[in-house]
């Protein structure tokens, strides 16, 4: 084993197979935003996947601050330990067709987690904020009346409001919807899937939201409230 290590001439190779945890940041849960080569946001990846893409030379360029510095192997010749810096945003060369993600007809998959984040964890009937576990998916036009299970017909609702509304439309139940349900674009969906998004990642994502994005307004309002 020692012989194999010593025979690896390139520092880079050793980095790619070393699993040593990060030096700079003890928190390994921070996600890296992967984009395509033109900068369209694709998905969140972890530090291992980011390191793999860098080692495979799939990263065309990187943006944002350095969030990980991974420790590599010791170079047999120089005796120096190599490191690998990973930025907040990595633009990668694509191998799979992704253009469908950015077509007008694209609809991201519907999940409660993304739905509740779209609605900022507010019940869109009583306007109160809840944790995910206390929210439910309400079909504005009820399924029993032919309503469909799609982004445009669902909102976050607390269990109390959802029970009260039951199998009725908002009009029939005398309840007013506080915001319009909408279908997120792929870039907005990437935001909805993010956990603890860094400021530079957020700024980058916002530039890819559609011009008339309802989500942008909600995000801005939430940021103001947090200040
Ligand atoms: Zn409610």
Give descriptors for this structure:
single chain, 227 residues, alpha+beta, 2 domains, 4-stranded mixed sheet, binds zinc ion
Mean pLDDT: 87
Q: Strand content of the residues, in percent?
A: 15-25%
Assembly level:
single chain
Euclidean distance between termini CA atoms: 54 Å
Strand order of the largest sheet: 2-1-4-3
Q: How many β strands by DSSP?
A: 6
Q: Structural class from helices and strands?
A: alpha+beta
Weakly predicted, low-confidence segments: 1-25
Radius of gyration: 22 Å
Helix content: 25-40%
Number of domain units: 2
Distinct small molecules? zinc ion
Shape estimate? elongated
Can you summarize the main beta sheet?
A: 4 strands, mixed
In sequence order, what are the helices and strands, one letter per element?
Answer: HHEEHEEHEEHHHHH
Number of helices in the DSSP assignment = 9
Give the arrangement of secondary structure elements:
Elements: H1 2-7, H2 11-16, E1 32-35, E2 41-45, H3 47-55, E3 59-74, E4 81-92, H4 112-118, E5 135-139, E6 154-158, H5 159-165, H6 170-173, H7 186-193, H8 199-206, H9 214-226
Parallel strand pairs: 1-4
Antiparallel strand pairs: 1-2, 3-4, 5-6
Bound molecules: zinc ion.
Write structural notes for this entry.
It is elongated and about 75 Å long. It folds into 2 domains: 2-95, no CATH class; 106-226, no CATH class. It has helices at residues 2-7, 11-16, 47-55, 112-118, 159-165, 170-173, 186-193, 199-206, 214-226; strands at residues 32-35, 41-45, 59-74, 81-92, 135-139, 154-158. It has a 4-stranded mixed β-sheet with strand order 2-1-4-3. A two-stranded antiparallel ribbon has the order 5-6. The protein is built from 9 helices and 6 strands. 30% of the residues lie in helices and 21% in strands. A hairpin with a 6-residue loop joins strand 3 (59-74) and strand 4. It is α+β, with helices and mostly antiparallel strands. The chain binds zinc ion (ZN).
